[in-house]
Here is the input.
Amino acid sequence: MNKKGIMVALVLMSIGFAAVATTLTITGTINYGYDTKDFNVYFSEAILDGVVNNDLIEKTEKKSITFETKDLSTIGDRSILEYQVMNNSKQYDATVAIKCERVDGEGNVSDNQTSDYTEIIPSPESLTVKAQESRKGTVTVELKNVSTEEKEEKFKCSLTVNPGEREKEPSTYIADNYCDSVAKPNLGTNDELIPVTISDSGEITKVSEDNESWYDYCDKKWANAVILKDDVSTSYVENQKIEMNDIESMFVWIPKYKYRLWNVNVTEPLYNAHSIEIIFDTTNTEDVEGVSCATPGVSGDTGSCDNGEYMTHPAFTSFEVDGFWVGKFETGYNGTTSNYNVDDSNNLIIKPNVASWRNINVKNIFNVSKKYKENLQSHMMKNTEWGAVAYLSHSIFGINKEITINNNNQYKTGYAALPTTDQSDFPGVSGDGNGFNTTWNTENGFTASTTGNITGVYDMSGGAWEYVAAYVQGSSNDASTFTKDELGQLGEKFFDVYDKESTVKGYTKMILGDATGEMGPFDEYKDGDNNPRYHNRWYADYSHFADASYPWFRRGGCFSDGVIAGQFGFPRDTGAVDRGDGFRLILAPSNQTQ
Here is the structure.
């Protein structure tokens, strides 16, 4: 393959401004592309001034972005284009250098590269986009001064793209086939969990657990299973379609894996949003310098772990299992009563197009979850278990980018916001949400899944905030209704327990693998509602660490949260009843039940 550097035009902007009272408007075009049979980098997202606007991306080739900034009228005003590029190759990394230069009216590079009026800031000036990785960059236009007479400035930015064949990592875990050791889904006992396949239209079919079509993680096809209502639990035979009305709950299998660490120290990340390197394996990692480390699983403790090493994800160690089943959707409530704050699991359902179970405190969430299927070790989802699903989603085995928000303002499960205001191309469009959205079994609906297809997990961005079984110990503001003795007796098998010194910015108190501190660095700035929040560097998701004042973690985001929602978001709360807070269920059948 030709590895010669390729120069392509990135930006061409015209800037006009006059007196102080006038505004500054910029129109620009970004061209980016290098395409061969085995190497392809393309745009996968565009955010202009904090708002996702993928209409800016050429829909056919995804090779260019055309945009116009907001009006800039005051010195210091900025307009920021954030672009995300995806390296679709499995063999080649991309090194991208970015350089902006002012040009004359004919497009030639100007001798004078300084300006009294504007500053153009590309950041970063270089990117390493690894194979199967997505990375972000920005172009910022800032108004430094104004002029008493009309002027015009032009500039262009260029990319130099160099593909390079991947070098083998110094690890005994790297293999040509990452899927050789995928743990077989554990269906437990009593035949309650029924293996199923799901067509793109949402048709659910009972299959044998030995059916080769059930799952294929290397093809982003995750294993699904359902639990039927008691009165129909034995009425279906193999290869028969299962009616949705007969289903009580739906689950997705998350097989045990180890992942490559990149941000052990929080403040010194190797890189930000990227494809997380995962290897399926049912054994636990041990301390081998430069290769792997034993899983610490403790708040603020990184053990012997270092960046670049592999670590067994902690979600699989507390229950000592080779995988777990996660609720395919947020947990729903089967009924119309307003008394949701109960520990009665009889009304628990996990299905698409139902309202999330909210208005319930953490103790009742925990009790409902634990009582549901105790023989399958059902329990309230932990923070680390959320992290395990989120990390798998952002790998070559998942959607490998941010999940589309569920913006349905009725808290209905399995919806996805539309990327465009043109509704004609989206059959099954619903208008009862916060803006238009589609259901789980549509092409647009797949973008709200962890796999980008119908086999994945939904509602991990938007819908309801989801309480997880994770808290800061010793809080005097715990409204979960748990006593300290009760929490102590249940222990770290059922809860992720965080250091009492944790603070809203205390990301070093993370548990490696919980998808909090590893998403840093973190920035505080005002969002579109003019409220300041902390945001991480993985899609700027809402990132407020739990502390003594708000000791319980929530995950994912609410339907109304827009760009700050996502699978890597984590605000905090007291553990009390809230109309916007729901939860998710986990089944962790022991290895002995296989």
In short: The longest strand covers residues 151-165. Residues 6-165 form one domain. Confidence is low (pLDDT under 50) at residues 1-35, 168-177.
